[in-house]
Amino acid sequence: MILKKLKIWNFRCFGTNENNQPGLDLDFDPKLNLLIGANDAGKTAIIDAIRYCLGTQTYDPIRVEIEDFYQNPDTKQRADNFKIECVFSDFTDIEAGQFLEWINIFKDDNNTTLKELRVWFTATNRNNRITTTLRAGVDVEGQYLEGEAKDLLRVTYLKPLRDAENELSPGYRSRLYQILKSHPVFEKKAVNEKHPLEKYFEQASNMILQFFEKDTLDKNEELNITGEELGGKKIKESFQNQTQNFLEKKDTRTPEIKITSTELNSILRKLEIILEENKSGLGTLNLLYMATELIHLKRENYLGLRLALIEELEAHLHPQAQLRVLKSLLSDESSNIQYIFSTHSTLLGSSIPLKYIHLCVNNNVYSLNPNYTELSEFDYQFLERFLDATKANLFFAKGVIIVEGDAENIIIPALAEVLDRPLHKYGVSIVNVGNKALLRYANIFKRKDNSSIPIKVAVVTDLDIEIIENGESQKAEQEINNKRNNILQKYNSADQNIRAFISPLKTLEFDIAMGGLHDIMDKSIQIAKKITTKGEWINEEELSNLNLDNHNNENDKIKRSIKIYEPLEKRRASKTVSAQWFAKLIREEQDIITKLKEDYRNNTGIKYLIEAVEHVTETLNWQYDANNG
């Protein structure tokens, strides 16, 4: 039995679509599901919706609040009801037998018998009085779901920032106690039958009583007692004498020192599970707590739902521990546990196969399963090899810039700051692919229905036209335009959320040298050339005495750009170092905005990078300024 589907109407951030369709209709993988995305994207709402509908193994109380009802962002009006529906499938015959009153058994088009169970939780707010119901069944009305059937659908839930130490501590509310008492090992065949643990505790209690009856202990090799060690008779007598002074003359009761209770439940409440005698850290305790819960979920002969909801799997865990947990879940083929967990960890986001990821964006959820994306099988294989923790920050971004190298990765954030569009303020991430495989990353955001995930994506790429020494291109203008149009057609989505921004002619440094920032690019490359020749970083004195090649008097822009770019093309200067200095110099240039506006209005130089920044942040409206002087 698995949770196949979740539907939500008017709960938290998920409203209702046209024709009363659910605001969220989400299919789950039978094994693993990762909810990932920025804060307030709906991850917790999804997990809480499942909890509200099914309840938890720990019987946590569910209290519906006014804030749980969807609020329209425009009218600020709250819905007066919400509904959460869970659909279950893949029942064994024995599992299905537990839900005969509610389950739907039918045949599909291939005449295969299928079993499906619909369970829905509704809440209604009338005059600030909230009422809830839980129903299940085939028809619209359904029947109340109660008793054992309801308990069989409870989920194992690990809350975020969980207090593993408290959960595993001995006591009445001990989670270990709750798990142990439900295990078959601790079941009694008859009410008055003594469990082996009870017998052990009775034996221990008798030995303790004997300790307080004697002045000197009897020799006992097993307990390493020599016969000369003192017993506790004197202190017991002191308790008896002092107590007798407070009692009536005829009161014959005397105090005894013993183990308080030897009943099985009391014994189980005293137990704790530890990895070491010293106090463990939060991470270790969290691992132990998760292991304890999963052992409980894997128990034999359990006919209920084996579903684990884990919020923030990475809580208190360092990166290697996160990976061990994830790899363990992925490799565990023997159990039939279904996992739904959320994360803010780029490491986990990059380590799990994409097909298991549900990307939460703008109060909607987009599965990265092959049934929904434009990614090919080879794309999946490629991304699982190369989508590392640094690139996985795209899962948390409100805008993404995909670049093919370090130069763009360094220059674009600096340019955004100069434009007063700092990327971090807009939640924009840069993904440095490090090669030409830009399309594989862009296709993560493309959907099979010709739509795209509503995240602004700018793909920054080079046109890479060959320029010969006389300043002419080896390709005709029409061929250049065709190449540019092919790139746009390949990357751009129909809704324009995903757009390609292409260097006008050759590559980033060459094309910047074609515009108003040519002097800054020239200086940056010459500094990088000096550093490359010298073999170490350049100091301020050397920088001030640096003799720059004078390319500024070159009238032909293409010839000028060829000369400026030459050290990079012939590998006499580092592209990365050049980019570092270019980013530094444009931050320091007092007249930088004037130069940027010149490129922007003349459609030259660095304009395509400015447009990429605009696409993922805000429009600059510089063209409007130009039209009005």
Compile the SSE list and pairings.
Layout: E1 2-9, E2 24-27, E3 32-37, H1 43-54, E4 81-89, H2 93-97, E5 104-107, E6 113-126, E7 129-136, E8 143-144, H3 147-151, E9 156-158, H4 164-168, H5 175-181, H6 196-211, H7 233-246, H8 264-270, H9 282-297, E10 307-310, H10 319-331, E11 338-343, H11 346-351, E12 357-361, E13 364-367, H12 377-386, E14 399-403, H13 406-418, E15 428-432, H14 438-442, E16 456-461, H15 477-491, E17 498-502, H16 508-513, H17 518-534, H18 540-544, H19 557-569, H20 575-588, H21 592-602, H22 607-616, H23 622-627
Parallel strand pairs: 3-11, 3-12, 9-10, 10-11, 14-15, 14-16, 16-17
Antiparallel strand pairs: 1-2, 1-4, 4-6, 5-6, 6-7, 7-8, 12-13
Task: Write structural notes for this entry.
With 629 residues, the chain is of the alpha/beta class. Among the domains are: 2-169 and 281-359, 3-Layer(aba) Sandwich (Rossmann fold); 375-507, no CATH class. The chain is built from 23 helices and 17 strands. The chain has helices at 43-54, 93-97, 147-151, 164-168, 175-181, 196-211, 233-246, 264-270, 282-297, 319-331, 346-351, 377-386, 406-418, 438-442, 477-491, 508-513, 518-534, 540-544, 557-569, 575-588, 592-602, 607-616, 622-627, and strands spanning 2-9, 24-27, 32-37, 81-89, 104-107, 113-126, 129-136, 143-144, 156-158, 307-310, 338-343, 357-361, 364-367, 399-403, 428-432, 456-461, 498-502. The strands form three sheets. Strands 1, 2, 4, 5, 6, 7 and 8 form a seven-stranded antiparallel β-sheet that branches. A six-stranded mixed β-sheet has the order 9-10-11-3-12-13, with helices on both faces. Strand 12 and strand 13 (364-367) form a beta hairpin. Helix 5 (175-181) packs antiparallel against helix 8, helix 13 (406-418) runs parallel beside helix 20 (575-588) and helix 17 crosses helix 20 (575-588). The longest helix is centred in the C-terminal third of the chain and has 17 residues, at 518-534. The protein is elongated and about 120 Å long. The N and C termini lie far apart (69 Å). The model has no long low-confidence stretch (mean pLDDT 90).
